[in-house]
Amino acid sequence: MKKIIILSVFFIFISGFAFTAHAGLDDFLKDINAKAIKDINNFNASLSKHFGIPIPRVEGILKAVVKPADAFMCIQLGLMTGKMPETVVKTYRKNKGKGWGNIAKELGIKPGSAKFHALKRGDFGFYYDSPGESKGKGKNKNKGKGKRKKK
Q1: DSSP one-letter code for 107
Q2: CA distance 11 to 78
Q3: For 130, which of 15, 35, 93, 148 could close a Cys bridge (C-beta 3.0–4.6 Å)?
Q4: Domain tally for the chain?
Q5: What's the whole-model pTM score?
């Protein structure tokens, strides 16, 4: 009887952890979509700056996906896997109904790896403030305030 109770508690714990990890990515993507819809041009510029790719390329990726957060994920997964974002877009189109975890696996990110856990948490270091929001919130609040190189 004790074994059944312990196993039940264990499975409840594991199920709760999986839900929390899933909610992390979902919340991150919902936040990106909500902010991007307010000002897509600023979003494109932010993606361009963050990933170091030209705005026209960002716009092309955005046109190939359903939501702005999908464009972010295609670029991010490209970075994580060493693949071109356009290659990730092709995989996304074939597997978009299966979720980002399956897309990541299809691209070679191993379940259980640090990259896979970062994906599930939505832990990407992208802090996009749309116009009208205060800058400098959260982990990124000191960005750009460090020492500058002398010329």
Answers
A1: T
A2: 34
A3: 35
A4: 1
A5: 0.69
